[in-house]
Amino acid sequence: MLIAFNKPFGVLCQFRPQPWRPTLADFIDVPRVHPAGRLDLDSEGLLLLTDDGALQARIASPRHKLAKVYWAQVEGVPTGAALQALREGVDLGDFHTLPARARRIDEPAGLWPRDPPIRYRASIPTSWLELTLREGKNRQVRRMTAKVGFPTLRLVRAAVGRVGLEGLAPGCWREIDPRAPWDRQ
Prior knowledge:
The chain is α+β, with helices and mostly antiparallel strands. The protein is built from three helices and nine strands. It folds into two domains: 1-64 and 164-180, Alpha-Beta Plaits (2-Layer Sandwich), CATH 3.30.70; 67-160, Alpha-L RNA-binding motif (Alpha-Beta Plaits, 2-Layer Sandwich).
């Protein structure tokens, strides 16, 4: 079984109940599924879950280099030099990121409002980036954009392989055929 879930902001990527935060158990009542990778508490978007350990490893492990697409709303308007640095890979101190696809985009169509909304500053514009990574270290996108001078204010995972968020509202999920070629990109 393979499930695509649109994780809302503020939801923990675990099934164990927490008295202070919603968890996956508050949205998904399917026995024996586990997240294949994770999204931080303050990130939103596509999370894949499965009951197949080998499939879980294939999705989550960086050695399989499965493309993951992120939409990042950043503070400021990234320069060409900043985008080129993201494309070439960024030295984050503890590791150097692999090259990523990076481009400026308009605010994604159909994007839901975040609750709570990001902070707004009248004197500092925001803009959107689309980043495609084939690795997934802890808080990597946020660290990359901050390193090139444009901190992430909102982060949404839009796709994993060919599975995307289309038609999937926050807090909702759908089953994906694990035998379909969803993992090619």
